[in-house]
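Exercise (ungraded).
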Amino acid sequence: MKHFLKETDFSFHEIAEIFARALDFKKTRLGGSPPLLKNQTWAMLFYKSSTRTRVSFEVGINELDGNALYLDKSNMQLSRGETIADTAQILSRYVHGLIIRAYDHEIVEEFARHGSISVINALTDFLHPCQIYSDAFTMAEHWSDTAKLDSLRERKLAFLGDCAGNMANSWILAASLFGLRLALAGPEEFAPCSKIQELLNKEGSENNFTFTNDPSEAVLEADVVYTDVWTSMGDEEEAELRSEKMTPYAVTAELLGTAKPDALFMHCLPAHPGQEVTQEVLDSPKSIIFDQAENRLHVQKAILAALVEANRH
Ligand code: CP
Ligand code: NVA
């Protein structure tokens, strides 16, 4: 059974195919999409809040002629102690695939291990692979008429703020996969974590990233300046400390001005204007935040299609 739990679950070549299909879905959306999920129901189990991920998956599944079933963990028996092992096996008897947003990454891995259906990681504390594929597609679309994944090679992406969070981890994993040069900048307390380094080592991936405490060093000559919230879902108790430490890493128009003249500003959203990024930057012509959000739909439809096809073989 094919799962999508982390960026490297598809090869470079397979991701390039996902991008080609996503571009086709995007261009032909008005005329309708092929019924690739006909007679299928995909459950969407959320332990955390969501706007983009939930809506884009639900709409995407419907457009591929499938049924999307939203499940809120808080009112399932899971919240009263039913095991993940049992829940995974039971859901596998009803539905054809499972999209999960959870806290510990081990939760999605456990569902994948015990169930007999495809599992998609819709964000964990460790990784957010659906976001990364959509963001990489958004860059590729910007730099190449045909959204070629190759167009990312040797580009410099500066990531500012929480360098130990799910988005930073995902970019670290993706940088070696896509051939991006990733320059992370953040406070020492939020430097890249050992868990992502262990995963890189385990997969035999090279380190395509640098880490500095100096935001201007990271942003200098960058093709993309990327940031995320300083306090992720689940980290709320540390909000004050994080805000204090990360204030020097806020993306301002002045800082963005030191990147390449045609640099892009990106953010997975939701944003907190006035914290990790100014409203001026969010509204600037360099900002492609809404293209990123839109592309979640097209790219996730292509991921669903790739999983369904992989499971046929
Ligand atoms: N970027 C993202 O995953 O947004 P949601 O939390 O709204 O799904
Ligand atoms: N790092 C953020 C991403 C939200 C899409 C969080 O986990 O809350």
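Further reading is listed at the end of the chapter. For now, observe: The mean pLDDT is 98. Strands lie at 41-46, 67-72, 97-101, 118-121, 156-160, 181-185, 209-212, 224-227, 264-267.
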